Amino acid sequence: MTERPAAQRLEATVRGFVQGVGFRWFVVKRATQLGLAGWTSNEPNGTVRVVAEGSPQAIDALLQLLHEGPPGANVERVDANRLPPSGGLRGFSIHSGGHSGD
């Protein structure tokens, strides 16, 4: 069995009816509960972007939650990439729309 790395980075775009329903606050609360660091933002195209770093188990849990979303959201698709962590993220916050990165 292949060992998973100690930490991973998730870069995800959530598509569907995901703005104006508290999606970013939902992400912040859940990611914080999972011990993840990162940020989320509404994008100009109507999607929600999520960048998170932490244990593979916590990343898996957050990814599942992104597919569900908060009440009122209608998630059509989550495009997700897993990468090595940058290690520079602290806490979990909401960034302004169209934020370019960490």
What does this structure look like?
The protein is α+β, with helices and mostly antiparallel strands and 102 residues long. The protein has a single domain, classed as Alpha-Beta Plaits, CATH 3.30.70.100. Helix content is 24%, strand content 35%. It has two helices and five strands, in the order E-H-E-E-H-E-E. Strands 4-1-3-2-5 form a five-stranded mixed beta sheet, with helices on one face. A hairpin with a 5-residue loop joins strand 2 (37-42) and strand 3 (48-54). The protein is globular, with a radius of gyration of 13 Å.
What is this structure's SSE topology?
Layout: E1 8-17, H1 23-33, E2 37-42, E3 48-54, H2 56-68, E4 74-83, E5 92-94
Parallel strand pairs: 2-5
Antiparallel strand pairs: 1-3, 1-4, 2-3
Short description:
With 102 residues, the chain is α+β, with helices and mostly antiparallel strands.
Biggest beta-sheet profile: 5 strands, mixed
In CATH terms, what is the architecture?
2-Layer Sandwich
Percentage beta strand: 35-45%
Task: For the largest sheet, list the strands in their spatial order.
Answer: 4-1-3-2-5
User: How many structural units, i.e. domains?
Assistant: 1
Q: Residue-averaged pLDDT, rounded?
A: 92
The computed structural class is alpha+beta
Find the CATH topology.
Alpha-Beta Plaits
What coarse outline follows from CA principal-axis ratios? globular
Q: What is the radius of gyration computed over CA atoms, rounded to a whole number of angstroms? A: 13 Å
* Measured distance between first and last alpha carbons: 33 Å
Write down the CATH class: Alpha Beta
